[in-house]
Design goal:
The chain is an alpha+beta fold. Helices cover 14% and strands 28% of the residues.
C-alpha cells in the first residue's frame, strides 16, 4: 500500500510548524527530524478492524507509541500466549489484576538499530536473556524497544517512596544478562493499547500497555497534536487514555547523594 502524498506533506508541514517555535540559530545547525512510517490497527465501535498507515516525524511522542515489543514477543491473552505480531484488535489481553481487557489498538513500525548516524532512540534496544530477572522471567530471550516499561524498580532507582514503578527497560541493563543491542537488520517493533492503562505479561515479564502520559501533548503544536491523535480511533484527546495504572520512574526524582 502506497502512502498518499498528502500524508507525507502533512507530516512535513507538522515538522515545519514545530520549527517555527525554535530559535533560528539552532535551526540552522540542526537537521530536521526524519519522517517514519507507522502502521496502525484499531478496533472500531461496531467491532470492525481498521488498518491504516501514517507518516509522522520520528519524534519521541510518536516513537513511544510504537517501539515497545519486538516481533515474536509472546503476550498472555485469554486464549493463551500469542506473538505480538499475530494479535488483533478485540483479542482479550490478560492484566495484572487477574482480569482481561480487549485490545483496542496495535501500533507497528520498523527501525534500523545498527544504522550509522541513526538517532539514539532508534539504536537503543534492550535484550533480556532467559531467567535474567528470575525463574521464567523472561521465559525466553526477549528484545524490548526504547519505549518498553517494566513494573519493577532496579536497585539503583530504589528509595523513591514507591515499591511499584513503571521503569524503562534500558534501566535494567547490567552488561551481562541484560544488555543493549543493535542488530544490523531491520527490526519490527510494536505497542499495544487497551481501554484502560494496565500491566500485561509479555514473555513472563510485567510490561505496561501504551499510554502517552498525561502531559504528552502539553507543549506540542496544533499540527503535531492533530497528527498524533489521528493515530487513535478510540479517542480524540489525551484524556481519553485515562489515568496511569502505576507511577513512572522517569517522572519521579531520583534520590540524590546524602549531604553531610
Amino acid at each position: 500500500m502506497t502512502i498518499p502524498q498528502s500524508l507525507q506533506r502533512a507530516a512535513a508541514n507538522a515538522v515545519e510548524a514545530t520549527a517555527i517555535l525554535q530559535d533560528p540559530a539552532a535551526l540552522r545547525s540542526a537537521s530536521k527530524p526524519q519522517l517514519r512510517r507507522y502502521e496502525v490497527s484499531c478496533l472500531l465501535p461496531g467491532g470492525a478492524i481498521a488498518e491504516t498507515r501514517h507518516i509522522a516525524p520520528a519524534l519521541p511522542l510518536f516513537e513511544n507509541a510504537f517501539c515497545a515489543f519486538s516481533r515474536g514477543s509472546l503476550v498472555d491473552t485469554a486464549s493463551g500466549p500469542i506473538a505480538v505480531e499475530d494479535l488483533l484488535p478485540g483479542d482479550e489481553v490478560l492484566t495484572e489484576d487477574g482480569g482481561s481487557q480487549p485490545l483496542v489498538w496495535v501500533g507497528r513500525t520498523c527501525v534500523l538499530p545498527g544504522r550509522a548516524g541513526g538517532s539514539p532512540r532508534s539504536c537503543s534496544l534492550t535484550s533480556f536473556m532467559a531467567d535474567s530477572l528470575g525463574l521464567q522471567k523472561p521465559a525466553a530471550s526477549l528484545v524490548a524497544g526504547p519505549a518498553a516499561r517494566l513494573l519493577r524498580t532496579p536497585p539503583h532507582m530504589q528509595g523513591s517512596g514507591s515499591s511499584k514503578l513503571l521503569t524503562l527497560a534500558s534501566e535494567f541493563q547490567d552488561g551481562m544478562s541484560i544488555f543493549e543491542t543493535a542488530p544490523p537488520a531491520p527490526v519490527d517493533l510494536y505497542h499495544l493499547c487497551l481501554p484502560r492503562h494496565a500491566v500485561i505479561t509479555v514473555a513472563g515479564l510485567p510490561f505496561e500497555s501504551y499510554h502517552p502520559g498525561p502531559d504528552a501533548l502539553k507543549l506540542a503544536s496544533y499540527a503535531i497534536k492533530t497528527l498524533f491523535l489521528n493515530l487513535f480511533a478510540h479517542t480524540d484527546s489525551i484524556q481519553g487514555f485515562g489515568p496511569l495504572a502505576h507511577p513512572r520512574a522517569d517522572s519521579i526524582s531520583r534520590p540524590g547523594p546524602a549531604i553531610l
